[in-house]
Specification:
With about 260 residues, this protein is α+β, with helices and mostly antiparallel strands. The protein has eight helices and seven strands.
Length: about 260
């Protein structure tokens, strides 16, 4: 009997130490972390979660998580809780969708990113899940600044490129004088390069529009052989200046698939 009691006490002490260890890890993490059981009640909740949500640890423990932590989609305000439900039902780690907001206790909204991982017992049955989330306000601001910079820089580049193209077209038309064969060849290469630069600027503008959902992707077929020849022609002067030769063996049959 004494041996049984000693073993039980040892197991109790080991369980207590393991719990204390888990709590120490939980409360030292720099992100918000909370744990829910199968009934979606919060059983663990760290201080960062309290700071981000506005709900104290006392207010959160024992409550259903959606009574305390409300995640919504930024676009339409619909509740985003599927990632937690999926973690519980599938037993697999789930990532939260992009552009998710946390509705704080005072009603303000905080952009967050997080994930949910299932907790399993020794029989591999899901008994709950742990959710980690963090404030991504700074990341959003940096991303917004990047998008704005790309947009402004692209618009600023269009003006000089338009002027350069206009001058080149004037030269090509012969209105500013007659050109010999070599001069016309160089001029045509310059026109093609300016066209590529203008397309690049337009692509940069499209990237900024894509990031704010103002542009849809419209892929079109591309002739890869013509594309390769164009690149070779553009870099031919640089190759010649370095005494290099670029050789391209054109396939006898054009590829069936174009990208």
């Amino acid at each position: 009997m004494l041996n049984i009691l000693e073993d039980a006490e040892a197991e109790k002490e080991a369980a207590f130490l393991e719990k204390e260890k888990s709590n120490a890890i939980l409360y030292s993490i720099g992100d918000g972390v909370f744990v829910v059981d199968k009934d979606l009640k919060i059983i663990m909740y760290n201080e960062i979660s309290a700071q981000l949500s506005g709900f104290s640890i006392t207010e959160a423990i024992g409550q259903k998580y959606d009574q305390v932590l409300k995640f919504i989609f930024e676009k339409d305000g619909i509740v985003n809780d599927q990632f937690i439900n999926n973690a519980l039902t599938t037993g697999k780690i789930q990532e939260m969708s992009n552009h998710t907001l946390l509705v704080r206790k005072d009603g303000s909204q905080l952009p967050v990113a997080d994930s949910a991982a299932p907790i399993k017992n020794s029989a591999s049955a899901v008994t709950g899940c742990v959710v980690v989330f963090c404030d991504v306000t700074k990341e959003r601001e940096i991303d917004k600044m990047k998008t704005e910079f790309v947009s402004v820089a692209s618009h600023q580049l269009r003006t000089p490129l338009t002027a350069i193209r206009w001058i080149l077209e004037e030269l090509a038309s012969g209105e500013l004088g007659t050109l010999n064969g070599q001069q016309r060849d160089y001029l045509n290469q310059s026109l093609e390069s300016s066209e590529r630069m203008m397309n690049l600027v337009n692509d940069l503008l499209n990237v900024s529009r894509l990031e704010i959902d103002r542009l849809s992707v419209d892929p079109r077929p591309t002739d890869l052989i013509a594309l390769i020849k164009g690149v070779i022609k553009e870099y031919q002067p640089i190759a010649q200046s370095k005494n290099c030769v670029i050789n391209f063996k054109t396939p006898k049959l054009k590829p069936k698939n174009k990208y």
